[in-house]
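A student in our group prepared the protein record below, which I am reviewing. Here is the record exactly as it was handed to me.
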Amino acid sequence: QVFAVRRMLEAEMTRAFVREVTPAKIRALKEHVAREKAAVLTHDAASRNELLGDFHVRMAELMGNEVLAQMLGELVSRCALITLMYQSRSEAEHSNDEHGEIVRALAARDEERAVRLMTEHLLHVEESLAFDRTVPTHDIALALT
């Protein structure tokens, strides 16, 4: 249910973001996506997971909507442990690529494409979680690598 709530909330946030997009906001999102990519390339699961989730919160922050940023932060936190344990590195790379596509749609002020990409991205993240992966229960550090 958390993922479904996120999809609805983020679709509306994306619509609003397109309406007030600026070059500075796009630059900030591009910088964030670059930091995500660096974390993915270093195989740092914790950092990549945090940055991939923070992309969504960052959008709300750039809109100046602290209430939305806080709500998204809470939803992202609820999803973070799940994605950290069950998202593969290749899926994290794909999420980073999807963030780049979303930013391009935002920069082009293409509201429908941006909303579609955001919704597809969140669905893809949810559908790509490998719940059949064996996660060690005796050592949380091993479970999170």
